[in-house]
Amino acid sequence: MATPIAPTPILRGEAAKQFEEYLNSPITEEEKEIKERIRNKRDVPMFKID
C-alpha cells in the first residue's frame, strides 16, 4: 500500500520572498543548457511493441 503524500507546506515571510524572486529572475546559461538537453533527449523504449 502506498504511503499518503503530505500536504505541501505554505511559504511565508522571507522564504516566500526569496522563492518569488527566484521565479521572477531570468534563467542562467546553465539552466538554458539543461532545458536544451531535456528538450533534445532521445527516448529509448524499454519494450518493443509489434
Describe, in plain words, how this protein is organized in 3D.
By secondary structure, the chain is mostly helical. Helices cover 46% and strands 0% of the residues. The mean pLDDT is 88.
Per-chain topology:
Elements: H1 13-24, H2 29-39
Q: What is the tally of beta strands?
A: 0
Please work out how many helical segments DSSP would assign: 2
Low-confidence stretches: none
**Structure classification:** mainly alpha
What's the shape?
flat
Helical percent range? 40-55%
* Mean pLDDT metric: 88
Largest sheet: none
Secondary-structure element pattern, one letter each: HH
Terminal Cα separation, in Å?
Answer: 33 Å
Radius of gyration: 19 Å
Q: Approximately what portion of the residues adopt beta-strand conformation?
A: under 5%
Main features:
50 residues; mainly alpha; 0% strand
In short:
The chain has 50 residues and is mostly helical. The chain has 2 helices and no strands.
